[in-house]
Amino acid sequence: MHLPTEIEVERRNRIRLLLASYAYEFKSETFLTDQEFDKLALKIQPEIETGHEVCDEFFKNKFHPSTGQWIHDFPELDKLANLYKNLTLTNY
Predict the structure, then answer these.
(1) SS (H, E, C) 8-27
(2) What is the pTM for the complete model shown?
């Protein structure tokens, strides 16, 4: 059985948090409760480099776990919007 590496866990957490924040801020939808969102946000470790330079830089300099407003500054909102759309389409 493969245990996920620290980088894999961080990538997964960031993607989930990005999608949750995007859904809430831009689509008025939620798939995490406020408590789940806060708990996940506190797990984010901005100092970990995941290999995605844009995302790594964003989480180091713009992310703050106390709010989801940072999503408005995410430099790849178009890619995030496409991912969100594709994921929601596959769930219906």
Answers:
(1) HHHHHHHHHHHHHHHHHHHH
(2) 0.90
